[in-house]
Amino acid sequence: MRADARRNYGRLLAEAGAVVAEQGTDASLEEVARRAGVGIGTLYRHFPTREALLEALLRDRFDGLASYAEDLLGADDPFDALVAWLRRIAKGTVAYRGLAQAMMAALQDEASDLYVSCHGMRAGGQALLARAQKAGEVRPDVRPEDVLYLAGMVATATEQVPGDAALHDRLFTYVIDGLRAR
Amino acid sequence: MRADARRNYGRLLAEAGAVVAEQGTDASLEEVARRAGVGIGTLYRHFPTREALLEALLRDRFDGLASYAEDLLGADDPFDALVAWLRRIAKGTVAYRGLAQAMMAALQDEASDLYVSCHGMRAGGQALLARAQKAGEVRPDVRPEDVLYLAGMVATATEQVPGDAALHDRLFTYVIDGLRAR
DNA sequence: CATTTAAACGGAGGGGTCCTCCGGAAGACA
DNA sequence: TGTCTTCCGGAGGACCCCTCCGTTTAAATG
Prior knowledge:
The structure is a homodimer. The termini of chain A are far apart. By secondary structure, chain A is mainly α. Chain A is elongated, with a radius of gyration of 18 Å. Helices cover 75% and strands 0% of the residues of chain A. Chain A binds a DNA duplex through helix 1, helix 2 and helix 3.
């Protein structure tokens, strides 16, 4: 990779982080390129698609969630472990407005950059869920995808009502209680 | 209202219904005008904002949900009544892709066309919830807005995964069970 | 009918965005 | 220093949003 290419890649990623944090996942890519002091063509060469850019932006986060899941597999209470993991997902997903949507869409498109990139995270969640089910704490009919959708759903609602943290907590609580085996 | 104005209003509304059904709530308004055989200026005169158009499109649906709630107030089981109402909301919201989002956003903007227009529906839902809570079937900490957000959340997930009706049902079930008083 | 008038129409136009494509710039390596 | 290959930049075509205003036309009036 040539020196200028590497430099531009870094600048683009940094500015993309800022712009997407401000404007959400469908921010203007031309503005990202402008702020990075780079031509729009350069942006498209490094990130052929909006999703590719998003994926680069999220890779670390996915890895963090994967290793967090591994840590939690050693926790005492399987249910609390799952809940803690989901809470972190739901909180983190709010970082970029529109991200929850994008994630839910990606979850059903196995060829998408995002789907592939979050594989480790998915596996971690699956393990946490299986453990909690085996312990009889989570209803047995819950599928692995379900918990991710639930987290995405809560995150979506939270995005729409950014001010109301109490609402977010209540919604999260309902969903978690709905998961619990009776 | 002049005859041509009334005619154009009707055409615009009809085509808007079709286009939004196809493309979702952020469909091209220029295409709506084109299909209606009307200038773009005419569209903006009748519907100054995208939300105004959406509101006109949804008014009947809101009224239907309001009167459905009234009917259900006479049903035997308060919990089942609430669930039936929510199920109908969640199903209906999927008619237009992006609608659940728009509704959740509108719910916190009391000045928005959508917020005002769905007042009757909100009141109906509030009554159903209060009855179910008084009967001790729904946890007491649930606020009136919460149930609408929950319906919107499920609808959002369903929009993202249009094919999987079973997923939709599962998610709906979790959320409903989370609402139930233990 | 003919005329007038005010409501309604239409679409050009300025400002954005997306994405492609290719001539030109500039690293890298000899 | 010169060559070669990679990389850059931004013009350009297509689309969309929304406003503004000259023109058309329904409808009321004489």
